[in-house]
Amino acid sequence: MANENLKEELRALISEISEVDDIPDDAAFKDLGIDSMMGVEIVAAIERQYKIKVDDTELQEITTLTKSYELVSGKLGNT
C-alpha cells in the first residue's frame, strides 16, 4: 500500500466519522471539533479497517492526521 494512499484513506475515514470536510495534515483534531467520543470511534474504525490494535497508551498520540498516519504506518510496517 502506498504511503500517500494510506494517508488519504485515513483522511477520508476521519472526515466521515467527524463530519468535517477538510482534515488538514497537522491540524489538531480538537481544533476541528473532534471530541474524545469521536476519537474513540476513529480509533475503532482504524483498528477494524487495518486489522491492527491501538494500545490505550497510544490513544493520546492520535491528535492529528499526520500523527494518526505515522502510528498506523508504523504498525503496518510501512515506515
Automatic annotation (TrEMBL):
Residue stretches in coiled coil: none
Domain Carrier stretches: 1-76
InterPro entries, alphabetized: ACP-like_sf (IPR036736), PKS_PP-bd (IPR020806), PP-bd_ACP (IPR009081), Ppantetheine_attach_site (IPR006162)
SMART domains: PKS_PP, PKS_PP_betabranch
Keywords: Phosphopantetheine, Phosphoprotein
Protein name: Acyl carrier protein
Organism field: Pendulispora brunnea
